[in-house]
Amino acid sequence: MIALVDYKAGNLTSVRKALTALGASFFTPATAAELEGVTGVIVPGVGHFTSTANLDEPWRRAIEGRVLAGAPLLGICVGMQWLFEGSAESPECPGLGVLPGRCERLAGNAAVGVKVPHVGWNALVPPPGTRSVLLQGVAPGSQVYFTHSYAPPVTNDCVAATTHGAETFGAAVERGHVFGVQFHPEKSSDVGLRILGNFLEACQ
Amino acid sequence: MLSKRVIACMDVREGQVVKGVQFQDLRHAGDPAELARRYNVEGIDEVVVLDITATLEGRRTLADTVHAVAAEIFLPLAVGGGIRSEADAATVIDAGADKVSLNTAALRQPELITTLANRYGSQAVIVAIDAKRIDDRFAVYVRSGQTDSARDAVEWAREAESRGAGEILLTSMDRDGTRAGFDCALTAAVSSAVNIPVIASGGAGGFDHFVDVFTEGRADAALAASIFHYAESSVHDLKVHLRDRGIPVRL
Fold first, then answer.
1. Which of B45, B88, B130, B220 is catalytic?
2. How many CB atoms neighbour CB A110 within 10 A?
3. Which of A87, B37, B48, B144 is at a distance of 20 to 30 A from B203, taking alpha carbons?
4. Chain A residues touching B196 at Cβ < 8 A
């Protein structure tokens, strides 16, 4: 059973629809205590980093507890940014800190039409020699759908980087069984469903 | 590199896709869910459902239409037409829309842009601008293109951005349904004035119109309806055409 964590940052309809299409068993826990025993945790999210403040101490402890017990964790978009130490979008809100690094605002370059937010389809480029559970069967250069203004850095955990104008950021990360994607797999057609499917497989 | 998006739009009235020429003379073009299924396979990057139903009764069917379309696609889905309140937006978002498109309501109560951006994030809020050339400026039209709002399209796009809009859907009233090509001057004027993506709409008739609006028009995305509805043009062939001319696309 997968827990889809709802911390009131936008709607979960698309993620639910994708999980249903993939045949996943999942629920939205009402309290942190309901995370007990789940085989995987998904922290979705659209909107502002401050909404992650709703994931208070009991939620943080419960999510960390599941990770320590071996359950895979997937953060999507703001949910992924939250796995890092924090974000420049709201420096007063600490991230979970299970991944090293901080998220920064994309600079863009208006003069040459490189806009922020970064909205649309862009390519996943795995660093040379990368092995990834999450991106298994996903061809390098496959495109996925992004919509965001802040992004994580390219760290040692990066399994796919994406370039917007002159900037390259971490689009997918993987550290043991902690996974994060800056894009929206639930809106990324067949490629996105494959990535969510890979996560569900890791939860079995 | 960020791809230029090719967006399919369905104008929906009472649950059925229709397409007008310059906002009138509507022709029947099919079942929304069926079209969505085809777009999903053909490689469309995003789908927009615009409800042009005038009656309250017809409006109730919109949530059903959105739900049926959302069930067919794992792509971004935007919904617009007659969204006048936070409750209207919530109805279509709960039905499966990722973004709402505000037109008249944004002009009448611009604070709605901010309210929705705070609740759902800017990425969920599109401000749609219908513009018409008047002498050497671009005037904003409202109410399905029937009234001059006396506002300037470029200035209104800037304000919409500052109030929290995440994208601008810019329709040329002069070109809509004509297949004479997008209004590149209008699109470039707005796209250069804002830092949020601009979706060009109105006038798509051939592949080179897309080339023009992505280069000369500086559009981030281009929207069309009828050329996709009637399967006259393959989305894949369009994208190959764009790629061959150096325009980044998802293929």
1. B130
2. 13
3. B37
4. 115, 117, 119
Give the Cα separation of A95 and A161 in Å (integer): 21
Exposure string for A10-46, b = 16+ CB within 10 A, e = fewer: bbbbbbbbbbeeeebebeebeebeebeebbbbbbbbb
Q: Taking 50 as the threshold, does the pLDDT of residue A46 lie above it?
A: yes
Nearest to A78 by CA among A90, A67, A60, A63: A90
Model pLDDT, residue B61: 80
Query: Taking the CB of residue A67, how many other CB atoms lie within 10 A of it?
Result: 18
- Taking alpha carbons only, the member of B115, B95, B113, B230 closest to residue B165 is B113
Residues of chain B with C-beta less than 8 angstroms from the C-beta of A13: 70, 93-96
Token readout for A6 is 């709802």
What would the DSSP string read from start to end of B26-83? EEEEE-HHHHHHHHHHHT-SEEEEEE---SHHHHHHHHHHHHHHHTT-SS-EEEESS-
- 3-state SS track over chain A: CEEECCCCCCCCHHHHHHHHHCCCCEECCCCHHHHCCCCEEEECCCCCHHHHHHCCHHHHHHHHHHHHCCCCEEEECHHHHHHCCEECCCCCCECCCCCCCEEEECCCEHHHCECCCEEEEEECECCCCCCCCCCCCCCCCCEEEEEECEECCCCCCEEEEEEECCEEEEEEEEECCEEEECCCHHHCHHHHHHHHHHHHHHCC
CB-CB neighbors (< 8 A) of A113 in chain B: 191, 218, 220
**Structure confidence at residue A145 (pLDDT):** 97
Sheet holding A150-151, edge to edge: A86-87, A102-105, A150-151
pLDDT of B146: 64
* pTM passes above 0.90: yes
Q: Is the pLDDT of residue B55 over 80?
A: no
The interface pTM score, or ipTM, of the predicted complex is: 0.92
What pLDDT does residue B143 have? 63
Give the type of residue at B104.
T
Is residue A113 within 8 angstroms of chain B, CB to CB? yes
Q: Over the stretch B145-162, which tens digit does the pLDDT of each residue have?
A: 566 667 999 999 999 999
Kindly report which listed range (A8-12, A46-50, B33-37, B99-103) carries the lowest average pLDDT score: A8-12
**Nearest residue, CB atoms, B74 vs list A18, A108, A113:** A18
